[in-house]
Structure formats: C-alpha cells, structure tokens
Specification:
The protein is mainly beta. The protein has a 5-stranded antiparallel sheet with strand order 3-4-5-6-7, with no helix packed on it. A hairpin with a 4-residue loop joins β4 and β5. It is globular. The two termini are 20 Å apart. The model has no long low-confidence stretch (mean pLDDT 84).
Length: 86
C-alpha cells in the first residue's frame, strides 16, 4: 500500500529517547504490506520485515536508513501503530 504518512524509527538506546531516528516513507507502492500468515508487518521493499524466523532488513528502498542493521537482527520490543485522521 502506498502512503507518505508512514514512518519507521529506531532507538539505539532505549533509555535515551532523544537519540531516536525517524524515517518517513517515500510514498512508493511498498510502504506498508501484510499479506500472508507467515509474515508479520512488512515496511517497504523489505526495508523492515518480520517472518517466522525473525526480523530482517535488506536495505533502504521505501524508507531512509534509520540505523537498523542489515540482514537478520534481534529486537527487544516492537510496536506497530495505526493513526486515523478525523
């Protein structure tokens, strides 16, 4: 799904929210995707994705680099939000 309103972010240190990095989607057709049961959320052209073996990042296609490591990586926690404009 295409959107320019979505973003990804990361914190290198969970105790320092001032050090967070945010990157907004470039609006391409791969901004947000969730299409089958073996995957969780997918952001961008595999910019950030979750499947049954863990979290992955293959590059910066739909979102700028926010400091998330390439390939498989471990996370302490994650959240996905939907903001609805009224």
């Amino acid at each position: 799904m295409s959107t320019k309103d979505s973003f990804i972010f990361s914190f290198a240190n969970k105790d320092n929210v001032q050090g967070g990095v945010v990157g907004y989607s470039n609006g391409d057709a791969y901004s947000v995707f969730c299409g089958n049961a073996s995957y969780g959320p997918v952001f961008g052209g595999d910019d950030l994705s979750f499947n049954n073996t863990g979290w992955y990042r293959s590059g910066s296609h739909s979102y700028p680099d926010v400091g998330i490591p390439l390939n498989r990586f471990e996370v302490d926690d994650y959240e996905v939000f939907q903001v609805v404009k009224k």
